[in-house]
Amino acid sequence: MAHPADVLAELHTLRAENATLRARLASSSPKAATAPSPAHPPPVGVPFTQKTRLSNEEISRFSRQLLVPEIGVQGQLKLRNASVLVVGAGGLGAPAVMYLAAAGIGRIGIIDYDVVEASNLQRQIIHDESRVGMLKSESAKQTVSKLSSLCECTAYNILIDSSNAMDVIKKWDYVVDATDNVATRYLLNDCCIFRNKPLISGSALRMDGQLTVYNLEGGPCYRCIFPKPPPPETVTNCSDGGVLGVVPGIIGCLQALEVVKIVTGIGASLSQKLLIFDATTMSFRTIRLRGRTPSCAVCGPHPTITKPIDYVQFCGAGPDDKAHNINILPPESRISCHKYAALRLDAFPHVLLDVRDKIQYDICSLHHSLNIPLSELPKRIPELTAAATFGEHHEPNLPVFVVCRRGNDSQLAVKMLEETHGFTHVKDIVGGLEAWARGRDPTFPIY
Amino acid sequence: MAKNFQVLYFASARDATLAREETLSIPDDCHTLPVPQLIRNLTARHPGLQAVFKSAILAINNQYVDHAGRELDGGRMVEVKPGDEVAVIPPVSGG
Ligand SMILES: [Zn+2]
């Protein structure tokens, strides 16, 4: 039996030899080392060649789909030769992109300009913890390349808007609307009409999902059904209203399924139909929609919109689902979280009014705060008056500081208390609890 | 005999009404309820629906009708009948 030290020495020698041989091999035959395998996607810029036969690798990989009578070899080739643009690598786009890549769609484009955040991971399953901070489009592309070397994937790290949408959409056969805001939905609709691309449109919020297909074989467009955008105050986004992760997951999967069906020509699509998913009752309802509206501003016979417009102006809201900061109060009606923190340390007598909804208040709150949601404030003024009235007084005599999540609702509350309810010592805490957590108390949660 | 119909509220229509569904009745002196009158009645009942109806669509028995009550491509006019199911469907835009 060899001595352990001898074995180690021999191992060392063998490793060195191995490395030398590998280096020699690589330098003597550079072509063998660098030539792409047949399955490798062509470099960007090289035209995508249509295939008329499946490779053995493709036959093995897609065998379970080839065996489905509705798909078969011809269907799989159609998927292989199709290109799909997915706009948004979020809750809808994540499963949609993954299923499209897995199903064998030949080329997938992914548009997103956002960065992966921890709060995305509850639903955006194409990203993971190691990708936090990475561009979503890049993270999604990495997942696709791990999933399938047969899929040629293009990541667009852009904010799609009127200046670039026409150029981008031109290059793709189908467009999947997996966006999170009204302005981009109208933009995609209009550009899909101008470029004559079917638009597979999904949306989700809280426990609700919607799915439909626009502009397919003469079917209606988004504007035929919803000619006017919803008033911004009626639009809730996922970052304010919340969303149960699997709900956009289901809609995103159904979007991928609709693409596969449309590409391969299976069955009936959701063109001229609207699928409504209600997760609370687990019900799927299909509404039969109207066909094209003859007076439609974009797809009708006499369109009034013939090129992309200003969608932010049209919708009264920006192309994202972020909250935007308002600034409606004079400086004397506002206080920074640092100054407010100093007052708390001094035990300065005051009332802290938290105007967030109870569901948010339950997540976290500052001690000794009074929670009256903004929507309930007008009818609960007596509670605030009682809390702010100290000693022998009959009128509120304590100052009231108002806080919310990000410092917008608190400004509205201060304005309302001053103008409508006669409060004179009211201040908004600038930036709300997020500013408090970032600037004052790193142990305070941010949601 | 009660001339009832169901109204289902989706998405932001639920926030405006704080209801998922309601049973309402067609007034005694009518057999059916025209769609514009339905919208007026619902808005009077839930003022928050006024903003929602700026973009929400209506369906009667899972069939789209426009706010004037026309079904499909400007064709047949429909009115709400006893036993009908009306859905108020605002567009959802999140994702
Ligand atoms: Zn149209």
From TrEMBL, chain A:
Residues 25-46 are annotated as: Disordered. GO terms for molecular function: adenylyltransferase activity; ATP binding; metal ion binding; thiosulfate-cyanide sulfurtransferase activity; URM1 activating enzyme activity. The active site is at C238 (glycyl thioester intermediate), C404 (cysteine persulfide intermediate). Residues 26-37 have a biased composition (Low complexity). SUPFAM superfamilies: Activating enzymes of the ubiquitin-like proteins (SSF69572). ATP binds at G91, D112, S119, N120, L121, Q122, R123, K136, D180, N181. Keywords: ATP-binding, Cytoplasm, Metal-binding, Molybdenum cofactor biosynthesis, Multifunctional enzyme, Nucleotide-binding, Transferase, tRNA processing, Zinc. Binds 1 zinc ion per subunit. GO terms for biological process: Mo-molybdopterin cofactor biosynthetic process; protein urmylation; tRNA wobble position uridine thiolation. GO terms for cellular component: cytosol. In the N-terminal section; belongs to the HesA/MoeB/ThiF family. UBA4 subfamily. This is Molybdenum cofactor synthesis protein 3. The lineage of its organism: Eukaryota, Fungi, Fungi incertae sedis, Chytridiomycota, Chytridiomycota incertae sedis.
TrEMBL record, chain B:
GO terms for molecular function: molybdopterin synthase activity; nucleotide binding. Pathway: Cofactor biosynthesis; molybdopterin biosynthesis. The modification Glycyl adenylate is found at G95. Its main location: cytoplasm. Keywords: Cytoplasm, Molybdenum cofactor biosynthesis, Nucleotide-binding, Phosphoprotein. One of its GO terms (cellular component) is molybdopterin synthase complex. It is found in: Cytoplasm. Pfam families: ThiS (PF02597). One of its GO terms (biological process) is Mo-molybdopterin cofactor biosynthetic process. The modification 1-thioglycine is found at G95. C-terminal thiocarboxylation occurs in 2 steps, it is first acyl-adenylated (-COAMP) via the hesA/moeB/thiF part of UBA4, then thiocarboxylated (-COSH) via the rhodanese domain of UBA4. Heterotetramer; composed of 2 small (MOCS2A) and 2 large (MOCS2B) subunits. Acts as a sulfur carrier required for molybdopterin biosynthesis. Component of the molybdopterin synthase complex that catalyzes the conversion of precursor Z into molybdopterin by mediating the incorporation of 2 sulfur atoms into precursor Z to generate a dithiolene group. In the complex, serves as sulfur donor by being thiocarboxylated (-COSH) at its C-terminus by UBA4. After interaction with MOCS2B, the sulfur is then transferred to precursor Z to form molybdopterin. Belongs to the MoaD family. MOCS2A subfamily. This is Molybdopterin synthase sulfur carrier subunit.
